Amino acid sequence: DFMKVSPKALTLVSAGFMAFAVLVFIFKTRIFIWKVIFSLIPIIFYIAASFIAFRFNLVLEILPPFSSGVLSFMAGFTYLSLTEEKEKKRIKGMLGRYVSSAVLSSISEKKEDILLGEKGMRMELTVLFSDIEGFTNLSERLPAEAVVEILNSCFTAMVDIIFRYQGTLDKFMGDAIMAFWGAPVKMDDHARKAALAGLEMKEAMLGLNRALREKGLPEIRIGTGINTGEVILGNIGSPKRLDYTVIGDDVNLASRLQSLTRRYRVPIIISEATAKEIGDNLLLRTIDIVRVKGKAKPVKIFEPLRPSEDMVKITLLSENMMEYYLGRKWQEALGICEEIERLVPGDPVSGIFRERLIYLMRNEPDTTWDGVWEVKEK
Question: How far apart are CA 195 and CA 279, in angstroms?
Answer without folding.
Answer: 12
